[in-house]
Write a structure and sequence with these properties.
This protein is an alpha/beta fold and about 325 residues long. It contains ten helices and eight strands. It has helices at about 35-50, 65-75, 90-100, 120-130, 145-165, 180-190, 195-205, 225-240, 245-270, 280-310, and strands spanning about 20-30, 55-60, 80-85, 105-110, 135-140, 175-180, 205-210, 320-325. Strand 1, helix 1 and strand 2 (about 55-60) form a beta-alpha-beta unit. The radius of gyration is 25 Å and the shape is elongated. Bound molecules: uridine-5'-diphosphate (UDP) and magnesium ion. Uridine-5'-diphosphate binds near residues 28, 90, 94, 113 and 223.
């Protein structure tokens, strides 16, 4: 692990004393092979740094016995909490469920496969002590990833940047949040379609950045398909910007100008009696405009579908089981 602070506050003494309690939120989906190692590693590092903590593992509908391991850990270690969602709701929902359970003054969210180096947490806490409300761990160039994974990340980042106005390239869900930011994210941003890293960037306040190298997975393999990533990218665009709708309007203006020009040309040639058959041109123009319309309908449809989902107001997740000390806040989606 290497880390560099991108803002220089070294001369300023700490604003806060060390946090009384630090909460770590770890979403886990089919992580049975590595979850115990991850919990023990994180605990070891926090203990060594003298940081009093709780580790909240949210099992996002695993089918490989992840929750049995988490529950066993929660029973034998008083600083571990296990929450099991009623099915697989996705990482975004799992992070939200974890945030709702936190009691700490500061909260760290991280993957449960140790790809986010927990050795960085003490440095993140230092940034918080110097006044940062959010500390973002930003990925350095990805060396361990495959070409396909890098391409996916690039497309995802490019889409969000071009259309969303949010620069999410190399950003990750490995973050430290001040408790007040956690409250904003869970109470004031009630949307169903969530992109955690986008929401945290959106809230603003004083944010610091630390660079990190993505480590190898401790066990298992990635849970994100190209489809899942694309769905997240679409959420990233649709919930943060209306640019795609403006592009449609722009395209409409463009085709209007084009049609005025073509019409003027047609009248001109007709007037001079030199009109020729333009069958191929007509077909091409028809097809081009037809596809513009279809794509535009698709884009509008995406917005409508998202609006419909928000309107239904279904909960983002449901909790089925909970093991460990009582939660920081009462979760409206508590176990049945
Ligand atoms: N994850 C989750 N629910 C899902 C998919 C993933 O909670 O539906 C968790 C997963 O267990 C891991 C984190 O999200 O802790 C990141 O997933 P993964 O390592 O598969 O993603 P990658 O590192 O390839 O981006
Ligand atoms: Mg991973």
């Amino acid at each position: 692990m290497t880390s560099t602070s991108t803002h220089s506050t070294d001369s300023v003494g700490p604003l806060h004393p060390a946090p009384e309690l630090l909460s770590v939120v770890m979403p886990a989906h089919n992580e049975a092979a590595g979850i115990e190692t991850a919990i023990r590693t994180v605990r070891g590092i926090l203990d060594a740094a003298g940081l009093r903590h709780e580790i909240i593992v949210v099992d996002d509908g695993s089918r490989d016995g992840t929750f049995d391991r988490v529950a066993a850990a929660a029973q034998s270690m008083s600083d571990v909490v296990g929450i099991r969602l009623s099915r697989n709701f996705g990482k975004e929902a799992a992070i939200l469920a974890g945030l709702r359970a936190t009691r700490g003054e500061v909260v760290v969210t991280m993957d449960s496969d140790l790809q986010h180096p927990p050795t960085m947490i003490p440095a993140m806490v230092e940034e918080w002590r110097r006044g940062a409300m959010v500390v973002n761990a930003v990925k350095r160039e990805r060396a361990v990833d495959t070409v396909a994974a890098r391409a996916r990340a690039m497309i995802y980042g490019w889409l969000s940047k071009q259309l969303g106005g949010l620069d999410l390239r190399n950003s990750s869900d490995f973050k430290l949040l001040d408790k007040r930011v956690v409250e904003v994210v869970i109470d004031l941003l009630p949307e169903r379609h969530r992109l955690y890293r986008g929401l945290v960037q959106w809230v603003g306040y004083k944010q610091a950045e630390l660079l990190f190298d993505v480590d190898e997975r401790v066990a298992g393999e990635t849970k994100f398909s190209v489809r899942a990533l694309l769905a997240l990218a679409i959420t990233g665009v649709i919930s943060f910007t209306h640019t795609p709708l403006r592009i449609i309007t722009g395209l409409g203006v463009l085709t209007l100008l084009l049609s005025v020009w073509v019409a003027a040309d047609a009248v001109w040639t007709w007037y001079h009696g030199t009109a020729v058959s333009g069958f191929a041109t007509t077909i091409i123009v028809e097809l081009t405009i037809g596809s513009f319309i279809m794509i535009s309908l698709g884009i509008v449809g995406e917005y409508i579908a998202k609006m419909y989902d928000e309107l239904k107001r279904r909960p983002t997740y449901l909790v089925s089981t909970r093991v460990g000390p009582p939660p920081g806040r009462e979760d409206p989606r508590r176990p049945l």
